[in-house]
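General statements about sequence and structure are easier to judge against a single worked case. For one protein, we set the task of working out the structure tokens from the amino acid sequence alone. The sequence in question and its structure tokens are set out directly beneath this paragraph.
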Amino acid sequence: MAKPQVHPVPPYGVAIHEAIATGDLARMREMAEHAQKWIAEHGDLSAALETLKAEIARHAAARP
């Protein structure tokens, strides 16, 4: 049986906003570090999303 593919989880805006809302400086710094590492390792998510949208449109247009 094949193992399910595991994808890294990006630091979503909700988690970032929740860290800000707590006012906990250590938590905010931790979240900022996590977000910076994510961007360094995986790049800008918005660029990948635009590529995905283009592929969705291309595949949808190819269907009869």
